[in-house]
């Protein structure tokens, strides 16, 4: 097993999903919702969330689902922006740019982690919001947990001061860079540019305008023989970069690497790119067109748990989340 690919994840089941007007100005991936009843749109989004949870469970990933019925949290389906977990028992809580997203941070999620996983330290950076400094978790950073590198495309949601503070506290090497689209606009979140797996990484290096920085990124991503497969800007626009490698279990108990992404992202990949992924992992693709209206995709929905379980919790064991759900703490089966 690799530190890069967690075997347990957190999802938030937002029953009041809507496209967040507070994030529309800087999220070029966000789209206007169709002219339908808001309740119908939210119900469709909930079905898509459940489909992601079901697909991950079917692949043998432990899935902890937290329910959210708060209409003031339209983006709560994307918990990776406020929380991250790390090998060695570290948890980070992060400052959010949009004011209406800041109360997505939930104590019951932290309590579940402390109760069922080995948490040593929680570092809360949310106080930086008062100073206008933001670092939106593993949306703002793409983290290589094996080589201890945190990659970050600078934007007003991803501040280098906060990155360096995080890296000092969590013992990661910071690697900040600029990334822009063809119109010259900064990419708002690093995790739409690409993802890092155990044996390969997919990244839109063409969106990094500085040639020397682009080559430095290529060299660092390819450490220990990892294959780097480049994405195009058009594929990034289809959320091909917004994927994540996870570890599931086969029915016989053996581990299985998977790459979770949306069906839209999967359709955008060329045959050679698909073949590169499938040499080391199985692709699990789920259709989530309603959720993608908000400018995020499957990776944004997943907060990976890179923590050791306490006795009685076996990561990757499909029944584990049912036992946890029965204990409460806001969990649903």
Summarize the entry for a quick read.
It contains 10 helices and 16 strands. The chain is an alpha/beta fold and 333 residues long. A hairpin with a 3-residue loop joins strand 3 (83-86) and strand 4.
Name of the level-1 CATH class:
Alpha Beta
Please give the radius of gyration in angstroms.
Answer: 18 Å
- Output the number of helix runs: 10
Name the beta content range: 15-25%
How would you classify the helix and strand content by structural class?
Answer: alpha/beta
* CATH architect. name: 5-stranded Propeller
Widest beta sheet: strand line-up? 15-1-2-16
Can you tell me the CATH superfamily?
A: L-arginine/glycine Amidinotransferase, Chain A
- The proportion of residues forming helix, as a percent range, comes to 25-40%
The number of E-state strands comes to 16
What oligomeric state best describes the polypeptide chains here? single chain
Give me the strand/helix succession.
EHEEEHEHEEHEEEHEHEEHHEHEHE
Structural domain count: 1
* Regions with little confidence, pLDDT below 50 for 5+ residues: 315-333
Predict the CATH topology: L-arginine/glycine Amidinotransferase, Chain A
Broad shape: globular
Q: What separation lies between the terminal Cα atoms?
A: 26 Å
């Amino acid at each position: 097993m690799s530190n890069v690919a967690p075997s347990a994840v957190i999802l938030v089941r937002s029953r009041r999903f809507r496209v967040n007007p507070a994030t529309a100005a800087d999220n070029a991936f966000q789209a206007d919702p169709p002219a339908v009843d808001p309740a119908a749109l939210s119900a469709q989004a909930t079905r898509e969330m459940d489909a992601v949870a079901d697909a991950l469970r079917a692949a043998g990933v432990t899935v902890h689902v937290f329910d959210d019925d708060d209409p003031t949290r339209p983006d709560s389906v994307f918990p990776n922006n406020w929380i991250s977990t790390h090998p060695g028992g570290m948890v980070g809580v992060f400052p959010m740019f949009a004011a209406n997203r800041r109360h997505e941070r939930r104590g019951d999620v932290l309590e579940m982690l402390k109760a069922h996983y080995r948490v040593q330290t929680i570092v809360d950076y949310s106080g930086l919001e008062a100073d206008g400094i933001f670092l939106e978790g593993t949306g703002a950073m793409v983290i290589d947990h094996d080589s201890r590198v945190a990659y970050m495309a600078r934007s007003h949601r991803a501040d280098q001061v906060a990155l360096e503070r995080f890296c000092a506290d969590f013992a990661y090497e910071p690697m900040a860079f600029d990334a822009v689209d063809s119109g010259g606009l900064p990419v708002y979140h690093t995790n739409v540019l690409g993802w890092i797996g155990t044996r390969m990484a997919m990244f839109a290096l063409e969106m990094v305008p500085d040639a020397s920085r682009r080559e430095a990124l290529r060299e660092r991503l390819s450490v220990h023989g990892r294959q780097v497969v480049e994405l195009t800007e058009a594929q990034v626009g289809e959320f091909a970069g917004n994927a994540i490698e996870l570890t599931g279990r086969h029915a016989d108990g053996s581990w299985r690497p998977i790459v979770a992404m949306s069906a839209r992202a999967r359709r955008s990949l060329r045959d050679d790119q698909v073949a590169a992924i499938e040499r080391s992992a199985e692709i699990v693709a789920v259709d989530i067109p309603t959720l993608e209206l908000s400018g995020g995709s499957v990776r944004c929905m997943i907060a990976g748990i890179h923590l050791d379980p306490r006795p009685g919790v076996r990561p990757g064991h499909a029944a584990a989340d049912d036992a946890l759900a029965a204990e409460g703490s806001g969990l649903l089966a």
